[in-house]
Design goal:
855 residues, alpha+beta, eight-stranded mixed beta sheet, five-stranded mixed beta sheet, 27 helices, binds arginine, binds zinc ion
């Protein structure tokens, strides 16, 4: 059933305190919930609690045991008559954590108990008002076998711990901050514990405790440090301090997403905690720091101020992604960070806008909330916050944040409340800006230039237009902050133009005929920019602009021009000399920012090209990419070799400089591998002498990209070396699944039989199938339909096990309308197979039915 934002009703009851007791057992856990309820709406005579997959053992109203005919218990709800304004319910339920393969609610995996309650998982633990605007003070008692579960954790402060006489331990936790049920967490198990501490700016000592799988304690040190950096950064940039005496992080291998910000007790996917130079790449290190930051920043933007309802998810996620991006920019190369964030928008987010799942950053209707933890809500949501920051400036934005916390600390609020605080703190009218929360789709901003030599006047005509999306036919003009820089001999001018209407003009006087306007600098608004630059002009920006992002962006536009030309010239197309000169220059004299240099030296990936087409020419894109890479590797062989040699010795430690040098060196290697046999020595040498995972993996992926015969031997060697480490093995699974030949099908069958593969573990499943569907476009989109069939078989098998994971993996099939007719037919057939499956989950059904809606 569909829920709508417009149907929102405030809760009729609230729960002032929640006292939970867990008697843990893998298959028969008993939960006793003592809830102090209060009626808010005196008209109401019936209370309805949410519940799913619960076995009700008993129910007391105050001290009275209710008989079965005194309440109504369905598979989704528990309803009873209420006569008093305040009363107590004592609810005993039994649950089966081991059978919980959906990993939502309380589950048992890998020998420990773990919970995930966002968005609506708490109702699988007990009957409750499972909605974010019901805030309650929680007390949690956990009773479990001492030998198996020496650590019993929940939110807040530990207030009691004692051994019982039957070999069990009882631990009691009290969380002083009222919170909604989605922030509840419970973990029980045996772990390595890595401890640190942190003194806040005002002098509070905070114990930092990391719980990780036995034997992995050493791999949590970087995450612990990253947490300290996050805490310091949030004090310095936002003036926000931590508010409890302990901050716990648990890393588990079975987890549906990246991590979860439960109050005082974050639960993380182990791949975002456990890193060491020999097992993790620089990208892994980056992700750990950024996600540790993200979850920490949620303590204020998410926990202290939370969402009124789930339609407001971007209130906390967009804002917290903005905060984690700012943090990452301060920790590493700011330009490359921005480039990567923009890539996410231009590929995944624009693709979502163009898909049947299109929605605004504040969705208006939802069937399964888990389907709306999307790049739109998160990453476009962060771009909307970034635009506010651009419009108001850092000081104005921070004034808005202070007012937001002054008004709403301890509350569950809406996106409007946030914008209102920004507006009131700055006396800046944001009424038109709010449309960003309602309107879905990707605006297209067109720019046309007119130069009048007599007046030395350059006029820019700007037009914005947003095409209809699957969810919304009519679109209005948005507020677009357009940052620009005018490159001119007489000196560069820069500024911010705030576009409000469909058509506007921007006039520059006293500029030369050669003046070149660089628009939308740093991607100041999440739009598609259509400009009228020539190749020459773009190359000039790529060489001359002072802003690194602008240089990269101009090159991206060049690549689109060249793809277009390659497609029309049947691959007789040769990249222009001016381009080779630019690359030669970059290889001979890399910029100070080596990571940026490596980005500039990269031919865009398939998805970057694909997103520029309404009908995606899969094969043409793949063959053009191949040809571009060949041309670069042949024409620039000496420069690539020299640059590789010059940067081949790097200290292993993860820091901005070393990361940049490795990126540059491995970019060269990626081209050099295309030389075939003659490159073998180089590849083997780097593989065998590498002291870190970045350099090892770079060899494997270079071999993969160039179809180098050394690939299989090295993969075998790698497997023997790393069979004990599942997170490293995931990389190996992904490389196999991305292998661009028909062999990949037999290979995937073998991977699924691997002793470390498990259909129950989302990391393993994603390592194989996300890689196949997203990093192997040639095989996934095969004209014989074998790729679609493999994904469909997988989803049918996976959906009953874990609907959240199956609904995420189906994404590439939803966009069937973007392909040629033959592929369309095959993809639709796959979707029909899914929709015909009896018992398909709501998660998968919502997406598949939307995809088939206007067939
Ligand atoms: N709040 C978490 C985070 O962004 C993610 C939770 C995702 N939940 C879900 N059901 N998909 O940090
Ligand atoms: Zn988040």
């Amino acid at each position: 059933s569909v829920k709508r934002l417009s149907d929102y009703q405030p809760p009729g009851f609230t729960i002032d305190s929640t006292d939970l007791t867990f008697e843990l057992d893998a298959t028969h856990t008993v939960v006793t919930a003592v809830l102090e309820l209060r009626r808010l709406d005196p008209q109401l005579t019936e209370l309805s609690l949410d519940g799913q997959q619960l076995q009700l053992l008993s129910l007391h109203y105050n001290d009275k045991l209710l008989a079965a005919n005194e309440f109504d218990c369905t598979s989704q709800q528990l309803r009873l008559k209420v006569t008093e304004d305040t009363f107590r319910l004592t609810i005993r339920t039994q649950i089966n954590p081991l059978a919980n393969t959906a990993l939502e609610g309380l589950y048992y995996a890998n020998g420990s108990f773990c919970s995930q309650c966002e968005a609506e998982g708490f109702r699988r633990i007990t009957y409750y008002l499972d909605r974010p605007d019901v805030l309650s003070v929680f007390r949690t008692t956990i009773i479990a076998d001492t030998a198996h579960y020496p650590y019993l954790l929940s939110n807040g402060n530990k207030v009691e711990q004692r051994k019982l006489d039957n070999g069990q331990t009882l631990v009691c936790w009290q969380d002083p901050f009222p919170k909604p049920s989605y922030l509840f967490a419970l973990v029980a198990g045996d772990f390595d514990l890595l401890r640190g501490d942190y003194q806040t700016r005002s002098g509070r000592m905070v114990a930092l405790d990391f719980f990780v799988e036995k034997g992995q304690g050493g791999k949590a040190a970087f995450a612990l440090d990253a947490l300290k950096r996050s805490m310091r950064w949030d004090e310095q940039r936002f003036g926000l301090e931590y508010d409890l005496d302990t901050y716990m992080v648990v890393a588990v291998d079975f987890f549906n997403m990246g991590a979860m910000e439960n109050k005082g007790l974050n639960v993380f996917n182990s791949k975002y905690v456990l890193v060491s130079e020999d097992t993790a790449t620089d990208t892994d290190f980056f992700n750990v720091e950024s996600i540790i930051g993200h979850e920490y920043f949620h303590n204020w933007t998410g926990n202290r101020v939370t969402c009124r309802d789930w339609f407001q998810l971007s209130l906390k996620e967009g804002l917290t992604v903005f905060r984690d991006q700012e943090f990452s920019r301060d920790m590493g190369s700011a330009t490359v960070n921005r480039i990567h964030a923009v890539q996410v928008i231009r590929t995944a987010q624009f693709a979502e806008d163009a898909s049947p799942m299109a929605h605004p950053i504040r969705p208006q209707q939802v069937m399964e909330m888990n389907n709306f933890y999307t790049v739109t809500v998160y990453d476009k949501g962060a771009e909307v916050i970034r635009m506010l920051h651009t419009l108001l400036g850092e000081a104005g934005f921070q004034a808005g944040m202070r007012l937001y916390f002054e008004r709403h600390d301890g509350q569950a609020v809406t996106c409007d409340d946030f914008v209102q605080a920004m507006q009131d703190a700055n006396h800046y009218d944001l009424s038109a800006f709010r449309l960003w929360y309602q309107q879905s789709g990707t605006p297209e901003l067109t720019m046309q230039r007119h130069y009048e030599p007599q007046q030395q006047r350059l006029t820019l005509r700007l037009n914005q237009r947003t095409a209809a999306t699957a969810d919304q036919p009519d679109k209005a003009a948005l507020v677009l902050p357009v940052r620009y820089q005018l490159l001119d001999e007489s000196g560069n001018k820069s500024g911010l133009f705030v576009m409000q209407e469909h058509n506007e003009t921007l006039v520059f006087d006293g500029v030369s005929a050669q003046a070149l306007p660089v628009m939308l600098e740093d991607f100041s608004a999440p739009v598609r920019l259509k400009h009228d630059y020539s190749e020459q002009e773009l190359l000039r920006i790529a060489m001359e602009a002072s802003n690194g992002f602008a240089r990269w962006d101009a090159l991206q536009s060049c690549w689109m021009l060249w793809l277009d030309q390659a497609m029309h010239q049947n691959n007789d197309f040769r990249l222009p000399d001016a381009f080779f000169e630019l690359y030669q220059q970059l290889l001979k004299l890399p910029l100070d920012d080596k990571a940026l240099t490596a980005e500039l030296l990269k031919v865009p990936e398939y998805h970057v090209f694909a997103e520029n087409f309404q009908q995606i020419p899969v094969d043409a894109i793949l063959s053009a990419i191949h040809s571009f890479r060949q041309q670069i590797s042949q024409r620039l062989a000496p420069e690539l070799k020299a640059c590789y040699q010059q940067h081949s010795v790097v200290a292993v430690e993860y820091n901005e400089m070393n990361v940049g040098i490795r990126a540059l060196k491995n970019r060269c290697l990626d081209y050099l591998a295309l030389h075939g046999q003659p490159a073998e020595t180089l590849l083997l040498q780097q593989y065998n002498s590498a002291s870190n995972m970045t350099d090892k993996l770079a060899v494997l992926s270079a071999c993969l990209h160039s179809a180098h015969p050394a690939f299989f031997g090295l993969m075998q060697q790698f497997a023997t070396e790393w069979q004990h480490d599942v997170l490293v093995l995931d990389k190996w699974f992904s490389l196999h699944a991305a292998q661009p030949s028909a062999q990949v099908f037999e290979q995937i069958t073998l991977l699924c039989q691997h002793p470390k593969f498990s259909w129950q573990n989302p990391n393993r499943v994603r390592a194989v199938f996300h890689a196949f569907a997203m990093q192997n476009p040639g095989q996934f989109h095969r004209m014989d339909g074998r790729g679609y069939q493999l994904l469909t078989d997988t989803l049918l098998k996976l959906d009953p096990i874990n609907p959240q994971v199956s609904a995420r993996l189906v994404t590439p099939l939803l966009s069937w309308q973007r392909f040629d007719l033959e592929r369309q037919a095959l993809m639709k057939a796959a979707l029909h197979r899914l929709s015909a499956q009896p018992g398909i989950s709501d998660d998968l059904y919502e997406k598949v039915s939307k995809a088939l809606a206007n067939e």
